[in-house]
Amino acid sequence: MTNLQKIRKRLRPLLMGLSMALGALALVCTAPVAHAKPKSKSKAASKGSKKSGRGKGAKAAVPLKMPPQAPLMTQGRRFRDCEDNDCPWLVEIPASHFRMGSSLDELGRSSDESPQHPVTINYRMGAMETEVTRAQFAAFVEDTHHESQGGCWVWNGTKVEQDPARDWRQPGFDQTDQDPVVCVSWEDAQAFAGWLSKLTDHTYRLPSEAEWEYMARAGHRDSYGFEGDSPAQLCEYANVGDRSIRESVPDWKIPTAECNDSHPYTAPAKSYKPNGVGLFDMHGNVWEWVQDCWHPDYRDAPADGSAWLHGCADERRIVRGGSWFDGPSFLRAASRNRAPATVRGQLVGFRLVRTLP
Prior knowledge:
21% of the residues lie in helices and 15% in strands. It contains eight helices and twelve strands. α1 (3-11) packs antiparallel against α2 (21-30). The chain is globular.
């Protein structure tokens, strides 16, 4: 394990929604970035034998058979379930398969992205083409009187702190109605999904972690879900920590992408290019809540796209995609993080999906 991997393993639990969250990120980002070196087959086999308790001469585990390369996804059918402006536009996501997780030589990877394994999505989905916006969340709050007070974890310029005066209406920076809502918890997202389901008479939900990565990759196997797969292109597709935040925040010390996306904080929906299937901001802008609870790796993970809700290491929920604050490694399609379901943070929002007949 490299020094970078050891630092990530120790500090990643602090990243989202805790008082040391972004301080941990700063430490991780200032560490030298290196390719993770795959272990030799002999060492990996030896380690596996010790963990499983197999005796000398026992057969090694058969490697998972990976599916053939799936075709790149193309723009799906765009539709919505009612004509009311409260109803989000959806994009149809086709059934297919993909490799979930990162390869051992992927730059910036962490051990919780392993083992890379095949997942088959044998059903179609409708996915919100953007993250839930402030306007959409405001309509939900007005209709249901949902309470989302209690403060929000915010970046004050030098550290992350719980600020009782902050919430989704006043997250600590200016937003338009079309910016993604932030300072919302996993529980807030569940309440919004229930409201939208009643409004449309269709069942909306958070995507599973596998579904989220499947949509983000859009058929790509490399680090990012767009053609070219280069961090230098991120500002075309994503609101990432970049030169714009370095120029806006005095003494910004956390390494960033070497491009300029023109938005130091959140950006309005559809400010950047969509991915191949027509989804916006799958990389960056805000981390997105998904349904699953936390597991430290993918051993025994579901292979059918369903949410992994049993055998949890703890009850923290997973967030995906990176945010306006984060550097390129956190915006990779395989990157994962987690936070308690009740936590609200300046970096976190969500989008919903529904299964299609």
